Structures are given as C-alpha cells and as structure tokens.
Amino acid sequence: MKIPEIISRIPKGAVLVMHASFKACKDEGISPEEMLQMLMAQLGEEGTLMLPTFTYNYADIWAVKPYHTQETPGIENGILSETFRQMPVVLRSGNPTYSVAAWGKYAELLTKGSDDNAGLGHKSSYENANKLGAKILLFHVGNNRNSMLHYAEVASNIPYNDIPFRECWGREALTIAGRMKLNGEFPACSEEFSKFDDIFVKEGFAEKLGNSGFLIDSSSMVEYICKEISVTADIMLCKDFTCEPCTVRRQRLAQKGFLAKMRYR
Q1: Torsions phi, psi of 76, nearest 5?
Q2: Where are the domains of the chain?
C-alpha cells in the first residue's frame, strides 16, 4: 500500500499517534517532510499528530548528557520523528526519557500538559492521547514498536511496572536543570508485543494496511490488553531468560501468586 492510500485511511480531525520506519519508502519519491505535510493536511485543523522522540536520558547511564527539550535528538525513533521534531510548528515535551513531539489542536496538552517525570503511564503524553480517543498508525513497523501497549500495562494495574528496563540506569533522569526523580513507572521489553499484530485485526479494532502496517483504535486496544492481563498476568512478557526486565517481572508475579492464581482459575 502506497503512502497516499495509507494516509487516506486516517480520519479527518483524528488524534494520531505514529510509530514509523521510513526506510521502506525510498522508492516512492516522497521525502519525510512531504509525508508529514500530507499527514497534517489529512488531519486538518481539528486534528493532532504525535510522534515519539525518546532519548532515554537516565541519570546513571555512562556518559549520558543532560536532556534539552529543543536540542537533544531522539534515539532510534526514525527519520520521520527527527524531521517532525525540528519543524517550527511542532511542540516537544520536557520528558527526559520518553519525550514526544506534537502538532495540531491538542499539541499543547500532549506536551506541556503531561508530566515530565512520567514514563508511558499515568499523566504521560500517551495516557492523554488515549483519553482523547487516539488512533495509532504503525507505519512499516509492528506492535513491538507500539508504545501505547506500555501504557496499557500500567492501566491494567499489574504490579510490575516499577521494575525498570535496566536497574543500572537508575530511577532518575538527567536534565539541564539537574537530576529529576522519575514517577516510578517504567516501560520495559516490547519483544512479545509482535504476537498482537494479527490478533488485533481479528478482534476488529485494527486495520491491516497491506504490508505497510496497521491503523489501531487506541482505547479499544488498551481495554483489550487490560482484560487479557487480568486472565494471563505475564502475557506481555517475553520468554527469553536472558531478558532482565521480563525475567524479574515474571519473578515478581510468581512471588505475589499471580501466575498460580491465573493457572488454576
């Protein structure tokens, strides 16, 4: 599916959260700037566009530099995100670990209206986007890049979100104002999320866009994940025993009796 057709599927006036890989589009003759302008035109004056500009400025990472809202580039978010971040009409949040860039009607709410010390959970840009009824566009990526699924983990109240991706990174972030204490909710591994690619389509709240990705209704997805976690507590955790966060989180669930409770329900 080509870029213009994908964009035509996005509802006018939507709040759109996009995770993207632009590499697959080199042959279409459309630049990142042109694609972003096409998205904005489709969304219109009532619409909003949000992309991740994550920097992971955890204070105890070796040689980490302080986060600066205007200057710090994102890390591995893709060229669309980095291009978008630098556009003069775009706002960026002050979150030193999981910042976002946003344009449109609700851009200020999604950036300045979200807590800077939040992860991807409560009072974060992702929670605000979900409350606004966001659509999620996964452009040439799958659900293992869908950060709203980390919000769903927090929304489910499963008792492992205080366990970080890497304990050695610390529980504070580094900003130009100094060290910032984070709110204690940490997103971690997302490798297991790929299994939801076809499941979400079958459940009816995601549309498969040919081989180009997915368009997902955020609130329906979050509701579905919360229900699934209530049945299978470790459904979001990968099974690689070398994965630090998933191993430690599964141990927590076992200690609290969640795995046995689910097994014998």
Answers
A1: 55, 35
A2: 3-232
